[in-house]
Design the sequence.
């Protein structure tokens, strides 16, 4: 098999139309040990941090407010934010926000916090 036989383009809106649940990331691609994920955020998530992974949040639709202990960063459509490893944070979306994430494959969505929103296995769409 040729390498380019595996290449397929991904339409973010098409993939985002395949699910409606909030705070449950879906895998849409993989590269260099990183996962490309799509998620829908609504209201407040949990305070957490990732000791070993940086997180990349790209806003496809809506507005993401990233709460840090000392400030809040507003991320609008077509903007992104990188949260450095070890930084305690809480994503918040007023209304619904569609987010693309880049994270190492081992990254747990709730980081050091384990609760009902923790997803140990993610669907691939």
Sequence:
């Amino acid at each position: 098999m040729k390498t380019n036989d595996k290449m397929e383009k991904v339409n973010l809106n098409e993939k985002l139309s395949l699910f409606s649940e909030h705070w449950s990331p879906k895998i849409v691609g993989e590269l260099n040990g990183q996962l490309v994920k799509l998620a829908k955020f609504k209201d407040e998530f949990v305070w957490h941090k990732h000791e070993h992974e940086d997180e990349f949040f790209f806003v496809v639709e809506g507005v993401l407010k990233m709460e840090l202990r000392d400030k809040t960063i507003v991320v609008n459509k077509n903007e992104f934010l990188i949260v450095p490893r070890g930084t305690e944070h809480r994503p918040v979306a007023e209304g619904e926000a569609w987010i693309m994430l880049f994270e190492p494959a081992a990254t747990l969505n709730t980081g050091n916090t384990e609760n009902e929103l923790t997803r140990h296995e993610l669907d691939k769409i």
Remarks:
- The longest strand covers residues 89-104.
- The longest helix spans residues 12-16.
- The chain has a mean pLDDT of 88.
- The two ends are 23 Å apart (CA to CA).
